Fold this protein.
Amino acid sequence: MSMTVLTVDDSRTMREMLRLALADAGFRVVQAEDGIHGLEVLQAEPEMPQVIVTDINMPRMDGFGFIEEVRGDQRYRAIPILVLTTESDAEKKNRARMAGATGWIVKPFNPVKLVDAIRRVAA
Amino acid sequence: MNQIISQNGQNQAGGMKELISFRIGAQEFCVDIMAIREIRGWTAATALPQSPSFVKGVINLRGAVLPIVDLASRLGFESTEASDRNVIIVAQIGEQVVGLLVDAVSDILTVTDDVIQPTPDVASETAKSFIRGLIAMDGRMISLIGLDRVLPDMELEAA
Amino acid sequence: MDPLAAIRETFFQECEEQLAELESGLLAMEGGDQDPETINAVFRAVHSIKGGAGAFSLEALIRFAHVFETALDEMRSGRLAPSNDVLKSMLRAADVLADLVRAAHAGDEAEHPGAATLAEELRTMSGAAGAEDESEEDWGDFEFQPMAVAVEGAEAPAAAPAGFKVAFKPRADLYAKANEAALLLRELTRLGHAEVELDAHDVPPLNEIDPEAAYLSWTVTLTGDADETSIREVFEFVDGDCELEVTPLGGSAESEGGEPAFDLSSLLARVQGDAPAEAAPEAPVEAFEPVAPPPPAPVVAPVVAAAPPPAAPPAAANETAAEGQAAGGPRKTEAGATIRVDLDRVDRLIDLVGELVINQAVLAQRVMEAGLARASAVAMGLDELEQLTREIQDSVMAIRAQPVKSVFQRMPRLVREVAAMTGKPVRLVTEGEGTEVDKTVIERLADPLTHMIRNAIDHGLENPEKRAAAGKPAEGVVKLSAAHRSGRIVIEVSDDGGGINRERVKGIAIEKGLISAEATLSDEEIDNLIFMPGFSTAAEVSDISGRGVGMDVVRRSIQALGGRITISSRPGKGSTFTMSLPLTLAVLDGMVVSVNNQTLVAPITAIVETLQPKAEDVHSLGGHARVISIRGGFVPLIDVGMALGYRNEPLPATQGVALLIEGEGGARAALLCDAIQGQRQVVIKSLEANYRQVPGVAAATILGDGRVALILDIDTIVTVSRGDMRKAG
């Protein structure tokens, strides 16, 4: 039973990069294009993702909003969330943490580190 | 089975042998019980490429990969269409463990060495290479098989 | 083309969409559109292009997109007014960005004539708006990020202490963010030998327990080679959400952590009685008198049981503590105490655990087939069993593990020898010598490592004159490091030399016919050309690293261990070879396929991609020989069923799925199978143990249905299929 990871990113390139790295590591990947889509996928997905990886800058609902929604929902609040952020952006990292992010992944991500980070937060 | 084997250990010291006999078609054969690890039902085997026809494939025996030798085919008879009625005798041959596909296990015999008669010259070469001797018992003739040549020989087959 | 190259194409497609979005957004703003979502969309377009460019190290593009993004961010935050002049510049910047995207797509590295001026213009805008310019160094790190694999603790553990005491007290915030103390402790215990002490002092009486609060804290005594940096790294995500103290063992005085941590009976008393906890003067406590004053003992809990979730009912916490006390008591394991065990016994245990894993998988499959809900008690119990089984497997595998020290130790001498032969002063820095990996993997690492270190000195480092000219110290540095990452061991060999001369490498590859002269390759692709068979040139072969072996041989030996190797290089700064290897040879990541009703497993490391053959791409060469055209090149199409003698007539290519694989020596071939079932980690079982080698079959495994599946020996299938494999049999 492989672990399911929900990736939320508006960039197709990033979604594909994430899928490649995660599928390589044996994870099942479900994708969403922005925060709202992410919440829809959470609701529709029969297998609750064990980890969420989300971008911050997204249309409709950004990463901060998405994290707050997830943390505010009894059903999902225990799911670890990793945000994708650039190294230089300490402010975003902090805002994401305030919103309830479990951890972060520095973009452009190294697949090994990505998987490592996921394994670190996933039960 | 454990009990029998441990008894057998003592018996053998006194020149006695315990053998397990089984049927292939109408014929009866036996092997030294010391080589037998267990007897189990047939399960479908995974076919092995590049293998002689008497190797039915491999099965999972509690995590070990076990080759199954169709003993009928190996001895030069028609090959067995295995079904649930068949039995696999799991035997230790040297360092390896092998499953022997036979029709049924019939008996456990206790014999002394002197009842084992030499194989007559009339037997075919194939038969002679496996049969170590003959035992006459209750009007039956049982061939004692040596297991050391049951598996395909590496060099021979590679040629 | 590997999957990454396919994503690269996706990226350029997406860039075009984003460029269109960018342009239309800027035009709308010029036309008076003041919707904040418009500027957000414009910003996101540039941000996404930068992000993707970063992933593919397209440096010119990253630089420009970054400057552009900064200016847009100023505008977005209202610090830069979207005046007509500003928008005009932005539109010109959008054009330059489009040019740069197209140039990057074409692999054209020529300077863009307008980029520098426009970048300056954008910078001035942002600067004028009061944005602090990001430092160049910071940015430089960012670019290098995609390839860099972090190496723990840069300082050499010369006189490292024997270990650390880690005091860890989570705050409620930690749990609120879905971090788990148990996982952090698990991670920590992987760094060395760990003893975990639970402190439940702060657990209040039952009626006062707040399910959202954090009451427990832990003290971990960690012995082994881990340094402080790697310990702190474990807690990176929870920095600020916990109290953390890392103190070297045997250093300063024992702090509170060493004191009796937990007095069960007093806790019980507090939970059950109303009496104040400390004073406990009279009546209600009396009932507990007989048990009240046992010598307080530190709770040494096994890691698995170390962390009841904070919201767990206190009963569970008590249970855990009680268990810990019963089982652990004041037991202190002597650090470094060992026993000698016959290797056969260990291997038998590994076998048994392998069986357990398979059995567990069989059971899981049966439960699934029985149609039980995922949330049913059985399925949940099974999930726990799976977790436990995996942990047992890891622990058992760890028994066979040894530190890489034994092979690292051989390298200093090699370095001295090669340094003497090349006349280059070299310093070898090693890190992570204590990192453990399966004994067999270690034994088979020596050759590739030797070759890579020779290579790093001979080809990587410049001679002292060149180094002096480049302003580098005369002494070159070669670094050898090992670390655990995601259940694999990552070994890096890096040098601080000149980096890969990409022009020359590309030239050689073209000259050798390895790539076409028109090929557009990313820097990364060019760097990786050195792994191609036949790349090492006569001019290249020197006494030291030549010997007729190229990096392709290194790559092959790494692949044979189920590993991967990549190189990253920065011109003028040096190169890093990164090897990622499985911790054990007992398991393998496999692609499960069906061929003629047989289930087979192909090692994932050999598979480049999977594809659905189209009729027009498949060409017959007479007989059963076929080739398939993949992006303009022809690759032999091998019918696995035929190759293994499972069938006599080839499968029509369009009815199957092809695995594009890269076999020994880099030769590519497409293996035609009936269908792909999925990816899975499988336990490797020897066929030779009870049978013999079978051509085309590397080993066997046991799948979830309890049946044996064969693991393909891809190299043999490819090599032998050139003749007819079945004739050989």
Notes: Residues 1-13, 154-159 of chain B have pLDDT under 50 and may be disordered.
